[in-house]
Specification:
Elements (H helix, E strand, L loop, with lengths): L8 E3 L5 H8 L7 E3 L1 H7 L8 H10 L7 E4 L2 H9 L4 E5 L5 H6 L4 E3 L7 H9 L6
Parallel strand pairs: 1-2, 3-4, 4-5
Length: about 130
């Protein structure tokens, strides 16, 4: 995504996102971070409600329909679907590929490196220009 100049947000219920990203050397990877602290401050409900994801899209200045969600949790996939996100990618980390599809994933992969190039290209073509 970065190679294609796509803005990336991180959504997490964790209140320790800042220190975890700093410890991993990944602080600069995400233009927007909506974490547990932001959710608490704004009184945003968590998954399966789409509110934290919608806030991230808003902060990226894109419509949900122009954004993708990558999720390994069924509740996160549900949030992406109910929030009308343009692409909901389910990551099958625990052997629940069928359940991820049933909960609304457009595509399910075992690893993001397995995401079909045509899915990624189709999504990138409908992305708005970077602000």
């Amino acid at each position: 995504l970065k190679a294609n100049d796509v803005l990336v947000a991180l959504v997490s219920a964790s209140r320790n996102v800042k220190s975890v990203l700093a410890g991993a050397g990944l602080s600069d990877l995400f233009e927007v971070k909506v974490d547990g602290l932001v959710a608490d401050e704004m009184k945003l409900p968590g998954k399966p409600q789409p509110d934290t994801f919608l806030e991230a899209a808003k902060r990226l200045h894109v419509e949900a329909s122009q954004a993708a969600i990558v999720e390994d949790a069924l509740s996160g996939v549900e949030a992406g679907r109910s929030g009308n996100f343009g692409l909901v990618i389910g990551v099958n980390r625990t052997g629940q590929a069928e359940a991820l599809q049933e909960h609304g994933a457009d595509v399910v992969v075992d690893d993001l490196g397995d995401l079909p190039k045509e899915v990624l290209n189709r999504f990138l073509q409908q992305m708005p220009p970077k602000p």
